[in-house]
Amino acid sequence: MIILKSKHEIEAIRKACQVVAECHRTIAPLIQPGITTNEIERIFEELILKRGAKPYTKGYKGYRYATCASVNDVIAHGFPSDTPLAEGDIVTIDTVAELDGWLGDSAWSYAVGSISPTAEKLMRVTKECLDLGIAQAQPGNRLGDVTSAIQRHAESNGFGVVRDLLAHGIGRDLHEEPNYMHVGKPGKGLRIKEGMVFTIEPMITEGTYEMTIDADGWTARTLDGKLAAQYEHTIAITAEGPQILTAQ
C-alpha cells in the first residue's frame, strides 16, 4: 500500500533529509587519499546525533554501522573499515537519519583524488541518471517513465543498471511501497501521485549489472569486479512536481 504524505508530513521528512544532506556536504571536501571509511562513519554518526537525530541503519536487521561505505566494485552495503582510501578509488557513502520518527535517505559517490577517465564517466553518467529520473517523477506520470529514462541513459553510455537492489518509498519506515528496479518501459508501472515520497537511487556499473553478495551477507559487489557508482535522493511528489528533500 502506498502511504501518501500530507504537506506537514513532507516537511517533517525534509528535516530528517536535511540532516543527511548536511552529512554529505560536510564529508565531501574531506574525502582524500588516506582517509578511512571508519573515519567517515564517525563523522556522520557524530553529526547525526548532534542534530538530535538517530543513525537509523545502526542495528537495522543486524547491521552495525551508521553508514554503508562501498568502494570501487562494491555496489552497496559495504562495511566501513580502517583501510585507507587510495588515489583513484571511488567510494559511495549511504546513510539514513531518523528525526522525530521520520526518515531521510541519501547516497553519494565520491572520487578519491585523481580517478581514471572511465571512473569519471561512470560517476557523471550515474548522476545524470538520477537527474533524468527525478525530472520524470511528475504527478500523473508512471514509474516506468522514471526508470526507463535511467535505463536508457545508462545503457546508451555502455553501462549496466543493477536490478537486484531496489529503490523504495520512505516515511516512518525505511522500505515502504513502492519498491522498484531502475529499469522499465515508458508509460508502464505505478501511477505517480501527489503526496508520494520515495527514493530514486540508480546503481550503475561499468560492466555487467549482475552482482554477488559477500559471505558477510551484506556487501554487494559487481559480478565481474568492475566499478559501480550510485547517487540517491529522497524526493516528494507535489502538485508542482518533484521536490528533492535531500538536496545538498
UniProtKB/TrEMBL annotation:
Keywords: Aminopeptidase, Hydrolase, Metal-binding, Protease. The keyword Metal-binding applies. Its EC number is 3.4.11.18. The keyword Hydrolase applies. It is an enzyme of class 3 (hydrolase). Monomer. This is Methionine aminopeptidase. It comes from Paenibacillus xanthanilyticus.
